[in-house]
Write a structure and sequence with these properties.
This protein has 385 residues and is α/β, with parallel strands linked by helices. The chain is 43% helix and 18% strand. It starts with a strand and ends in a 21-residue tail after the last helix. It binds guanosine-5'-triphosphate. Its main location: cytoplasm.
Length: 385
Amino acid sequence: MKIALLGVGQAGGKVADAILDYEAASRVDFVTDAVAVNSARADLLGLSRIPVDRRVLIGQSRVKGHGCGADNELGVTVAEEDIDEVRGAVDDLPVHEVDAFLVVAGLGGGTGSGAAPVIARELSRLYTEPVYGLGLLPGSDEGGIYTLNAARSFQTFVREVDNLLVFDNDAWRRSGESLRSGYASINEEIARRLGVLLGAGEVSKPPVPESVVDASEIINTLAGGGVTTIGYANSRLDRPARGLFGRREPDPDETDVVNRITTTVRRATLGNLTLPANVESTERALVIVSGPPRYLSRKGVEGSQRWLEEETGTMEVRGGDYPIPDSDYVAALVVLSGVTDVPRIKELQQIGAETQRNLKERAAQRPEALRDLVWDGDGEIDPLF
Ligand SMILES: Nc1nc2c(ncn2[C@@H]2O[C@H](COP(=O)(O)OP(=O)(O)OP(=O)(O)O)[C@@H](O)[C@H]2O)c(=O)[nH]1
């Protein structure tokens, strides 16, 4: 599936860069073009893969290139005011080659959190291709404002995109490690998962997949909107060293091949999801199994689809394979789309509402600050727009 990638804010730009790194290493083209949008000049300069002429600085007249300082209403304002600049960069993209847009942002800060939903709304207005979001949730130790930002942005972003893929930074922090020091490995993990998903149908050289995951399979899985979480697991193969003269790798036992696939799919589904969710609340699913062709099997993929149907309670489970001849792994990617039972989102909304209440109480002592607050008085969090 070919995408146009838009990284918004600092985290959005860095994750977009990581996806481009993955694409370059995998030698499969799935990003047609990439654009970075930010209100902080230094963050745009810090990017490595996104071409310089595709980096758009917004909000210069208001924040002078210094970012939105975790104020996501300001993020909305600067994106709305400078939407022509963003539109100009997207107009230059070969949109006729694109199957979908992907807008990536950290939802806890100011620029990405506020601007990403504005940009998604504009893309949906202008183009017929689906617009997907990839939202990164803040760590629980980043404070109430980040949580409130994320809760508000989440509500708006999910409404403005055709589907919101979510990655919870909090669930991915390694124990004893600060979130900040873990960003590089977290970004690689996000890139790997998206790379397998988007690259699977773009294999143009032999060996071609037995069962291709083309763009329409992905689009149909994500159709209907809501929130998507992605699972991934791999299993290392004990393959003989390559390059040994005249030695052909023996064919593996078929039962072992099928068992390895079904076990890996189970681990992908029940292990580390990008956003922990109750699997039974899934509406549609997609499973992709990658690895060297002789370790792939239609029977294995179909068996895994049946298992996923039982586990999720939905009959809409698609599947396919992604041959990677040089790989030393069999890997499984499981896309769970339309999940509704997500404890982290509930928690985000509760903490966000509490933070909003505290801000209101404090602002009541300083009436002039009230106008900056969105507060409907019933404890609910308002969307950003
Ligand atoms: N996964 C991941 N999350 C990040 C990264 N950098 C920042 N974040 C998260 O993103 C949120 C902050 O968003 P940023 O993208 O830094 O902020 P911004 O959108 O540029 O907004 P302002 O700086 O306020 O203008 C926090 O919750 C961080 O934990 C990163 O490289 N990877």
